[in-house]
Design brief:
Bound molecules: thiamine diphosphate, iron/sulfur cluster, magnesium ion
Number of helices: 13
Structural class: alpha/beta
Low-confidence stretches: 336-389
Strand content: 5-15%
């Protein structure tokens, strides 16, 4: 028997920054780097959620820099949990509240439970617990993954979210091997949405587009049941750029199509903001180079590296079953609903299994695949083979 979730708060969309609540529940008192776009989503998330909220957070920058001795930015109740334990802590807290209310030991009222984690703690170490939480449909909770694309707190180690080719302390380029991070970024929100059909709400966002992000937090908390948000956060220290460019970089990640904005609500995917315009063909994707060359972590890139990166992003848009969201394509004729395969996507509805010839937003020259990319991946024979890395 499946139990119904507890009552969820009903939070209306903010829609405009001028209408955002003035109250802050994540204030001064933290010691994150200047321009840290992992701290901003904490502030926006808390603002969107409001005072009846409990926040849990795994080890990482948003734990360590927010808990200096005798100092904290959190106004709402906050608790640290183990790296990798966001899913379990969220379920435990939500279940505990529900039991206390059922037994009459505390007032029966809707309370938001938000567990945040970094990309190391959520996309790598804690993925199993998040997956389990998303199947526990009787509990209201939001897992909020802030993705700064590295294990930042321990000095920028490579995570499953680090982009291809990026320099980290684990992947410095050398004379023999220029590209040391050879894995493509794991598609976590798409994977979770595809694999957890009973989860009512899964979305991607970024603090660089604050209203979109806050309204997604509100939609997640109002959905009733377990929900997930993935939030891309430029990190001046790990991405090597001047802190004043944080917001610009967050927007460029979307404008280039590298990081699509969308929400999957009750099994239906909708793009939002600039991504929606790109998917509808109203706007062209910017070349990925505009985003990559603004960051020192890609300073070693040569033309073929930019071209390979562009090719991979083009694949996301041209070959995936839902561009940028679900990372596989039809392998042949398929009959899902009657005569045609119909993709459940409110913005872009296709009746053809193939995307070729009908490409959403495409602003750059075709990349001719000369086989180089595979060569790099196979033998990595770049630069001077006699030199050590
Ligand atoms: C089980 C465990 N392994 C390793 C560590 C050391 N550690 C603390 S924070 C951290 C980095 C976490 O990275 P992420 O989750 O991406 O958060 P960020 O630091 O980037 O904010 C690591 C490896 C730990 N605290 N616990
Ligand atoms: S290292 Fe990055 S994520 Fe951590 S506090 Fe600094 S800017 Fe923020
Ligand atoms: Mg991280």
């Amino acid at each position: 028997m499946t139990m119904a979730p507890g009552r969820a708060l009903k939070l209306d969309p903010i829609k405009s920054i001028k209408k955002a609540p003035e109250e802050e529940y994540y204030q001064s008192g933290h010691r994150t780097c200047q321009g840290c776009l992992s701290a901003l989503p904490m502030r926006l998330m808390a603002k969107a959620a409001g005072p009846r909220t409990i926040v849990l957070g795994t080890t990482g920058c948003m734990y360590v820099a927010n808990t200096t001795y005798m100092s904290t930015p959190w106004v709402v109740p906050w608790m640290h949990t183990q790296l990798g334990a966001a899913g379990s802590a969220a379920v435990g807290t939500s279940a505990g509240l529900k039991a206390l209310m059922r037994k009459g030991k505390m007032k029966d009222e809707p309370i938001n439970v938000i567990a945040f984690c970094g990309d190391g703690g959520g996309a790598d170490m804690g993925l199993a617990a998040i997956s389990a939480a998303l199947t526990d449909v009787e509990y209201n909770l939001l897992i909020f993954l802030y993705d700064n694309e590295s294990y930042a707190n321990t000095d920028i180690q490579t995570s499953g979210q680090t982009p291809w080719g990026a320099v980290t302390t684990f992947s410095p380029p050398g004379k023999k091997h220029r590209i040391m991070q050879r894995r493509w970024k794991k598609n976590v929100p798409g994977m979770l949405a595809a694999g957890h059909p009973d989860t009512k709400y899964i979305a991607s966002g970024t603090p660089a587009i604050p209203v979109d992000m806050m309204d997604k937090v509100r939609a997640a908390l109002s959905a009733g049941g377990p929900t997930y948000m993935h939030v891309l956060d430029p990190c001046p220290k790990g991405w090597h750029y001047d802190p004043e460019h944080s917001t610009e970089l967050g927007k460029l990640a979307i404008e280039t199509g590298i990081y699509p904005l969308y929400e999957v609500k009750e099994g239906v995917c909708n793009y939002t903001g600039t991504t929606r315009q790109i998917a509808q063909g109203k706007r062209q994707r910017k070349p990925v180079r505009e985003y990559l060359e603004k960051q020192g972590r890609f300073a070693h890139f040569k033309n073929q590296d930019f071209a390979y990166f562009q090719k991979k992003v083009d694949e996301m848009w041209e070959q995936w079953i839902i561009p940028g969201v679900v990372s596989f394509s039809y392998g042949g004729p398929i009959n899902i609903t009657g005569e045609t395969a119909k993709i459940r996507n409110n913005n872009v509805e296709r009746t053809n299994a193939s995307w070729i010839g009908d490409r959403p937003g495409h602003a750059h020259e075709e990349f001719v695949d000369d086989g180089l990319a595979r060569e790099w991946l196979d033998d990595n024979a770049l630069g001077d083979p006699s030199a050590g890395n």
